[in-house]
Design a protein that fits this description.
This protein has about 190 residues and is of the alpha/beta class. About 25% of the residues lie in helices and about 30% in strands. The protein has one domain: Vaccinia Virus protein VP39 (Rossmann fold). The longest helix has 21 residues. Bound molecules: S-adenosylmethionine (SAM).
Length: about 190
């Protein structure tokens, strides 16, 4: 089912993540590792490879570790990946923050302050969203869809790019999303 729906919303999300990573290009991408937390089918591996980044995808739903183009994927969750993170990592959560409870999400945010940058692509929950979008957010498998306002500033980070976008179906904005780029304040460029 996820793969079926993903055909509708994958390309706009990918484009937004590309626009966001463009902000890092040159200065920070090459020689960095792209850590895709909750990587699902690891579709971002191709993007990481095109940016000359080593790729590590982790997801608790994976059965076993294996190689993918430009890197590997491993069956780890947002808690167990913390021990793997390195200062040169660009940590990406694409459609995953709303699957993480507050304790897990805050623990991850704290740890990624030691990394190079954090990219979040997730639901943009706002009072003005279309009612179909609100229904989809309410019944999403992730139980922690957070208000968009909570992503404008994250404690310990400087927000360097915010890209709100709509994913439309039959002209209706059924998914409101955003991608944010956050730099730990100790390493603000
Ligand atoms: C909406 S899917 C997004 C998958 C992928 N990032 C993509 O965009 O195609 C959410 C993913 O989060 C993963 N997930 C759920 N709980 C998680 C956790 N505690 N730690 C890491 N990943 C988790 C799920 O297994 C699932 O693959």
């Amino acid at each position: 089912m996820y793969r079926l729906l993903a055909h509708l919303h994958w390309t706009p999300r990918l484009r937004s993540i590309e626009r966001t990573l463009h902000e890092l290009q040159g200065s920070e991408l090459s020689s960095h590792r792209f850590v895709d937390v909750g990587c699902g089918p690891a579709w971002l591996a191709t993007l990481a490879q095109s940016l000359c980044c080593e790729y590590l995808g982790v997801d608790p739903a994976l059965r076993k570790a294996r190689e993918v183009p430009g890197g590997r994927i491993e069956p780890l969750d947002a808690n167990s990946v913390l021990n793997e993170l390195q200062p040169t990592d660009i940590v990406v959560l694409n459609g995953v923050a709303h699957h993480l409870d507050d304790v897990t999400f805050q623990r991850l945010l704290k740890k990624t302050r030691d990394c190079t940058a954090l990219v979040l692509c997730d639901h943009r929950a706002e009072p003005s969203n279309h009612h179909i979008n609100k229904l989809l957010q309410r019944y999403d498998r992730g139980n922690f869809v957070r208000p968009y306002s909570s992503f404008s500033q994250l404690s310990g980070y400087k927000t360097t790019h915010l890209d709100p976008f709509e994913i439309k179906w039959l002209g209706i904005p059924v998914w409101s999303y955003f991608t944010g780029l956050y730099h730990p304040t100790r390493s603000t460029p």
